Amino acid sequence: MKALLAALACAAVLQPHAQPQDPPPPTRPRIALVLSGGGARGLAHIGVLKVLRDERVPIEYIVATSMGSIVGGAYAAGRTPEEMEAHTAAIPGPVTHRWIEGGRHELKGADATVGAIVAEWVAALTRH
User: Fold this and answer.
1) DSSP for 95-119?
2) Inter-residue long-range contacts of 96-105, CB under 8 Å, 24+ positions, other chains counted
3) What b/e readout covers 69-89, taking b as 16+ CB neighbours within 10 angstroms?
4) Which tens digit of pLDDT belongs to each residue from 85-121?
């Protein structure tokens, strides 16, 4: 028994002492991009995405509402800002005007057409 206690005492004394750990290397801040709504005015987010990409600002999170969620979702799904611009440029001018104005200017008989074109635009941005 004395031999066992002596062996344990020697093992405890000879055990290397725990070295203080170095602090972890500093990490860069995590960046969340917050995009708002606002109908076609929300398309300005495409330009913001281009600038952030060109400046090599990494985006870890995208939080959005309404139009921002469509643009942010398309970007998160791998669409480039240029692809989004191309799809947007294909929308006829009067429809874009109606979309921007939020229905304040009448396009006679165009409500169904506006809805269909906007739905196709969203579908084009979100499909692979």
Assistant:
1) HHHHHHHTTSS--TT-HHHHHHHHH
2) 96/40, 99/39, 99/40, 100/39, 100/40, 100/41, 102/39
3) bbbbbbbeeebebeebeebbe
4) 888 877 766 666 555 555 444 444 555 666 677 778 7
- What the block records as the tokens of 14 is 């000879």
Amino acid residing at 80? T
How far apart CA 37 and CA 69 sit, in angstroms, is: 8
pTM: 0.64
The DSSP bridge partners found for residue 62 are 33
Q: Rounded to the nearest 5°, which phi and psi values hold at 49?
A: -60, -40
CA atoms within 13 A on the CB side of 9: 6
Q: What is the largest CA-CA distance in the chain?
A: 102
> Helices (DSSP H) in 39-103: which residue ranges?
44-54, 67-76, 81-89, 93-101
What angle (nearest 5°) sits at the alpha carbon of residue 104, between those of residues 87 and 40?
25
Which pLDDT tens digit goes with each residue over 43-78? 889 999 999 999 999 999 999 998 898 899 899 989
